[in-house]
Amino acid sequence: MKAEPGNRIPVLRHRVSGEAMQVWARVLDDPNPIHVDREFVRSHGLGDNLINQGPANLAYLINALTAAFPEAFLESIDVRFLGNVFAGETVEAGGVIEAIESAGEHSRIVCAMSLEAPGRGPVVAGRATVILPNRKNQPVIVKGHLREWI
What we know:
With 150 residues, this protein is α+β, with helices and mostly antiparallel strands. The protein has a single domain (8-147), classed as Roll (Thiol Ester Dehydrase, Chain A). Helices cover 21% and strands 41% of the residues. The chain has three helices and seven strands, in the order E-H-H-H-E-E-E-E-E-E. It has helices spanning 18-27, 38-43, 54-68; strands at 8-15, 73-81, 90-103, 106-117, 121-133, 140-142, 145-147. A five-stranded antiparallel sheet has the order 1-3-4-5-2, covered by helices on one side. A hairpin with a 3-residue loop joins strand 4 (106-117) and strand 5. The longest helix has 15 residues, at 54-68.
């Protein structure tokens, strides 16, 4: 994709499954029953379906960034969780390039990002900054970390 302010990050759609939530719960060592027990969710007035883990929702945004800029290094991401994502929903992760700062041999690209639940609007929103080399196969050192570009 061409990196210019105002250009949209292509939308990535993800179907959220209860089975994946079970895996995330084990990986994250997350005992919260809202992710694994549908009856618990219902009995507490939180809806009719399991509620996805926040880190999984954040991962959908990061996946959209890495799909748009596969050669980039994620420098930072700062988001707010605005709503729940439920099993069975198809969410859409995307964004827009807000600014590009040239920093010598690389550029910083600042993006407004959001995860949308169709019919309900944004459920996660914030900003992310990626660092992109200005030429192919150029290593970039960022805050003491080296990322080699292949």
